[in-house]
């Protein structure tokens, strides 16, 4: 059996979540998962356009798990967001490499992080805000720790702050600029104060500005401050973490009720609290 980082993250939250996620596809894909998948496609291919098209592909099928009047506009907005972030992370270094799989007992463990030329792992966190508490959460989460424990490698974590969602759209330097009312000069951020009300707020996907051109504007206006962070994680208690991972019995169906609505509703909560299974609800079954 092939185990991934997500299996340990989900199992620790709720055994049933891990088991059903392995067996069934969600009717609609959560926005965060679509962003992560789009970004991964862009980084592994070395092509930001792949991030854009992958996100839109998820938006078309199975569709985004969002509601609102302008779902299509929201989808295009986030596709453009993940495209420009992909372009920023790729820089001039070319495609990223998927981390090597390793043996894990009788199973194979496939890290979902990437592998750098110096041997370190690398993962990307997309978040609405960033602070010291959130750093601790990411530093010690299964998303970071499982990969380090299984591979014995330290990890570089890149943090990209994408801003809060407002009616489905994110107002951040990655997506939003300001156009001068007369000469049409495009700015991303003022060094001091705010733009005058006469400056028109514009979104990159509507302006049609190419990702690299947008990044040049961000660099000129020093807009990367407060939206880009990084830290290095290492694991001093690897043996203890490995023992904990090996004690997890994948395939259980015990529900952890406290996880149903912790940060965001668990995608399985709509089934568990109605006494249904994915099969009974006609959720599509995974091929593998």
How would you describe what is shown here?
The chain has 288 residues and is an alpha+beta fold. It has a domain at 2-125 and 251-272. Helix content is 39%, strand content 17%. It contains eleven helices and 13 strands. The chain has helices spanning 5-13, 15-23, 31-45, 48-60, 71-90, 132-139, 142-151, 204-207, 211-220, 238-247, 269-272, and strands at 2-4, 97-98, 102-104, 107-110, 114-115, 121-127, 155-161, 165-166, 169-170, 176-179, 186-187, 200-203, 228-233. The strands form four sheets. The chain has a five-stranded mixed beta sheet with strand order 2-5-6-7-13. Strand 10 and strand 11 (186-187) form a beta hairpin. Helix 3 packs parallel to helix 5, helix 4 packs antiparallel against helix 5 (71-90) and helix 7 (142-151) packs across helix 10 (238-247). The protein is globular.
